[in-house]
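Q: For a teaching session next week I want to show students how multiple molecules come together into a single three-dimensional assembly. I've collected the sequence lines for a complex. Could you give me the predicted structure tokens for the whole thing so I can convert them for display?
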Amino acid sequence: MNSVNAYLTLCKPRVVLLMMIKAMVGMAMSPVFSWQIFFIANIGIACAASAAATLNHLVDQHIDRIMLRTQNRPLVQGVVTPSRALLFATVLGLIGFGLLYFFVNTVTALLTFCSLLGYAVVYTLYLKHQTVQNIVIGGLAGAAPPLLGWVAMTNHIGPQAILLMLIVFVWTPPHFWSLAIYRKTEYAKANVPMMPVVFGDHYTKINIFLYTILLTAITYLPFAIGMSGWLYFICITVLNARFLAMTFRLFSKDIFYAYKIFKYSIVYLFVLFIVLLLDHFVI
Amino acid sequence: MMHLRWVVLIAAMLVIVSVFAALVYYFFTAKSTVKIKNELIWLMLALLIMLGLFVPVFHQGFL
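A: Of course. Below is the structure for the complete assembly, covering every listed component.
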């Protein structure tokens, strides 16, 4: 791995891209829109998210060494030193904050900074090792981008933006707990108290199913509060029916089916946002 | 259309309250390897965060 690739890996580009897509949805759904803000805010949010990802690599080095999935990370392999990674994260964080503060608005800059701290410090350093609710509470930082996108455009926190955030927040547990069932042995080896490790698979499956019901109820709220129309209503019914059926079937299935749910949950969120946008702009 | 939006809003509210109750109920039926009291506090915090996010959304819906 060369150093450019190593620094790119530190940024977790796929996660950052997903964050940017979520922020773009928040921007596009807001009542006002400016292309200038769109570009600057996305760069700022991407820089802050990359800084948070780098800090996550830095803090989780000892776990990454143990888990098979993360053994090739640049800090574990020694391609990048911890001090360089810290410098890299600081520079990215400052650029992100500066762009948002000087060219977007103060509220977006502060909220983005709080999300960065929430993920890199509160979640990675503390929550992750403290409780099985780690990904639920820590998920707040990951759910923030639609809110950040909305606030970047409007300069205020609206209930519609909070609803978009809420959808991602409630989507996070079934998404991560499915993966946790699949990778239970690795999490146990790394001493991370994920729900299947602490409470077992059956209790986790109950929670996945209950959160999917909760997600189903919440995803109808954009229709209920007049944010979206019939196209969204019909599409979300189909998406939810499949998600509910899969999580119900999980009770009698093995860990490979849990991984299938993990993959479906990504498609689910992606399609949900696309339909939300289509309904907003086309209909 | 307006009536359906109200029905969806109220139905969603009832489902959310039921799921919250179910999460707490199943928590007490679980067998764990850690201190159950600490985990209960974390669960309550998670539900409280969600509740905090629901309030402005439902407020908007009922306006």
